[in-house]
Amino acid sequence: xxxxxxxxxxxxxxxxxxxxxxxxxxxxxxxxxxxxxxxxxxxxxxxxxxxxxxxxxxxxxxxxxxxxxxxxxxxxxxxxxxxxxxxxxxxxxxxxxxxxxxxxxxxxxxxxxxxxxxxxxxxxxxxxxxxxxxxxxxxxxxxxxxxxxxxxxxxxxxxxxxxxxxxxxxxxxxxxxxxxxxxxxxxxxxxxxxxxxxxxxxxxxxxxxxxxxxxxxxxxxxxxxxxxxxxxxxxxxxxxxxxxxxxxxxxxxxxxxxxxxxxxxxxxxxxxxxxxxxxxxxxxxxxxxxxxxxxxxxxxxxxxxxxxxxxxxxxxxxxxxxxxxxxxxxxxxxxxxxxxxxxxxxxxxxxxxxxxxxxxxxxxxxxxxxxxxxxxx
Length: 377
Description:
- It is a single chain.
- This protein is of the alpha/beta class.
- It folds into 3 domains: 8-114, Gyrase A, domain 2, CATH 3.30.1360.120; 118-182 and 345-373, no CATH class; 187-332, P-loop containing nucleotide triphosphate hydrolases (Rossmann fold, 3-Layer(aba) Sandwich), CATH 3.40.50.
- The chain is built from 13 helices and 13 strands.
- The protein has helices at residues 30-35, 87-98, 107-114, 118-127, 133-143, 146-159, 163-180, 199-207, 250-265, 280-288, 321-332, 347-361, 365-373, and strands at residues 8-11, 18-26, 38-40, 54-60, 66-75, 78-85, 103-105, 187-192, 225-231, 234-240, 268-274, 293-297, 311-312.
- Strands 3-4-5-6-2-1-7 form a 7-stranded mixed beta sheet.
- The longest helix is centred in the middle third of the chain and has 18 residues, at 163-180.
């Protein structure tokens, strides 16, 4: 029976071009494997390098190719190599480390194996996809144990059959779960309205650069155009959709069909109306999109009449944009988590907490404990 390779090689930095890449090799013989190709300036074997100390030198990637690297030995039988971040350099470094026997391990699998709990591993993996500083900060709180501690306290409360306080804590966790689920996946906000209401101009104003083509001819937008930004620290992807009206051509009909699909999957819809040219079509769309945030554009024009309960803005002058952004942030995250607060951030975590809450609602402690137990080792 074949034995698994003793050495594991992990590319810790993302695939693609970067300034620096980090590759880790761990297992019996890791230092010797690196020493065979590393020529340090100090000429000290990696096996004798004190833990945490960094050595500079050249690593031979092939018979005639070498790269200047920094080498560190974080622990016995573990070596990390920091090299130039070009894909070809990393590919050759990984191949050199695997030569003679070595298993390539994905960074996700390495994280799962290295972290002390499923929540910590999931937080580490989600951090790699965090899109804003606020999102990363919340995930770091979970990595450092905020959610684990909350689950442990819940298990204690349920074990003591103190259901009311346990339900209260579960409901708070579920209230912030939508924020947690969008830390590495942006909120999706779609702009809709009748043709030529100024949706494309508004998209450009919201993201701060020209992403969509603006033209006075109705029906210019034929496809769904997206642009990523951050609002109050939350990652958001705006989508500019085709104006909703009877299609004049087959191409425009395709654009309207795509727009309707995008509206159905959006976390929030902005219904944009022309405040200077109100029409009956707007009322029809408002009834159709009853949960939408109503935005009255073009308030810079004479004779404008923003509808009641709308957010008045001018995509041209920028008037009202700050208030609109604040309204969007509130609609997306009305109960944002506080610093250090426990936040579920995966679908599985949110579902387990929901199952526990539902079980406690009928005094089923055993099922609640089982659901909470799925979150901890």
